[in-house]
């Protein structure tokens, strides 16, 4: 079988968006991104794919350029390419508070192409909700992601505290999507790989990172399925 490549963007009609992305919890006012945290609601668990077959599902980066999350299924392996935060108007940001559309525990490996928030910003929440596997990326991407995610958590914590002090959130209490402690926990699951080195994710599937733009450490992902 050929080697599909997973890049940064996919042009898929919004009508193809999973049903799990259709609804979202929203604030009554547009002043705060914080919400009451009801925890994840799983809508689907990917099933094993027949030997030699591939399945690719887009759970983000569809109808918008943010929230990149692309789940590749091959044999019994589940590889998630990127785990980004939805950004933009309130309707988009509210998607971060819905289920990703699949159980994080069903994923074998997460491969991060680069550190931009729309590709990495959901990782701490994904780990908190049950993902316990490795997070593969280049060394430079890991260093950048740690800075970016800790800053994101700090801003969310400050927003939530401010909303609770001044009582302008419709949720009581207002909570951050994730905390600094969630980021620190997620960083312990990062595993760096070199460009051009094949890494197994589940027999017989492997992936290789290749140097790519747009920022330091960024990569495209080549997946090998015999």
Given helix and strand content, the structural type is alpha/beta
Q: What is the helix tally?
A: 5
Question: What's the gyration radius in Å?
Answer: 17 Å
Main sheet summary: 6 strands, mixed
What is the strand content?
A: 15-25%
Topology, number of strands: 10
Helix content: 10-25%
CATH superfamily of the domain at 44-145 and 189-224: Ribonuclease Z/Hydroxyacylglutathione hydrolase-like
> Mean of residue pLDDT?
83
What is the CATH architecture term of the domain at 44-145 and 189-224? 4-Layer Sandwich
* Global shape: globular
Q: Write down the CATH class of the domain at 44-145 and 189-224.
A: Alpha Beta
CATH topology name of the domain at 44-145 and 189-224: Metallo-beta-lactamase, Chain A
Low-confidence stretches: 1-33, 38-46
Q: Strand order across the biggest sheet?
A: 2-3-4-5-6-7
For the termini, the CA-CA separation is 6 Å
Helix-strand pattern: EEEEHEHHEHHEEEE
Quick recap of the structure?
Helix content is 23%, strand content 19%.
Overview of the molecule:
By secondary structure, the protein is α/β, with parallel strands linked by helices. The chain has a domain at 44-145 and 189-224: 4-Layer Sandwich (Metallo-beta-lactamase, Chain A). It is 23% helix and 19% strand. The chain has a six-stranded mixed β-sheet with strand order 2-3-4-5-6-7. Helix 4 (139-166) packs antiparallel against helix 5 (180-187).
Topology:
Blueprint: E1 5-6, E2 54-58, E3 70-74, E4 77-81, H1 90-94, E5 109-111, H2 117-120, H3 123-128, E6 135-137, H4 139-166, H5 180-187, E7 190-192, E8 199-202, E9 205-211, E10 219-224
Parallel strand pairs: 4-5, 5-6, 6-7
Antiparallel strand pairs: 1-10, 2-3, 3-4, 8-9, 9-10
């Amino acid at each position: 079988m050929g080697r599909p490549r997973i890049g940064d963007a996919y042009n898929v009609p919004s009508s193809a968006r999973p049903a799990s992305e259709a609804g979202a919890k929203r604030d009554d006012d547009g002043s705060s991104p914080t919400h009451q945290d009801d925890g994840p609601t799983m809508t689907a668990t990917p099933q094993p794919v027949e030997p030699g077959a591939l399945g690719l599902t887009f759970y983000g980066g569809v109808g918008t350029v943010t929230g990149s999350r692309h789940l590749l299924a091959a044999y019994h392996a589940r590889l998630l390419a990127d785990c980004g935060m939805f950004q933009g108007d309130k309707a988009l940001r509210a998607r971060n508070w819905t289920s990703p559309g699949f159980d994080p525990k069903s994923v074998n490996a997460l491969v991060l192409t680069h550190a931009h928030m729309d590709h990495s910003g959901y990782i701490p929440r994904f780990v908190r909700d049950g993902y316990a596997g490795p997070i593969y990326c280049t060394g430079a991407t890991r260093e950048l992601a740690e800075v970016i995610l800790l800053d994101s958590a700090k801003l969310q914590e400050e927003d939530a505290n401010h909303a609770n002090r001044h009582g302008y959130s419709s949720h009581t209490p207002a909570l951050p999507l994730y905390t600094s402690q969630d980021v620190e926990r997620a960083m312990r699951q990062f595993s760096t790989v070199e460009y051009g080195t094949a890494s197994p994710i589940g027999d017989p599937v492997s992936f290789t990172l290749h140097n790519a733009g747009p920022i330091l450490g960024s990569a495209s992902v080549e997946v090998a399925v015999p």
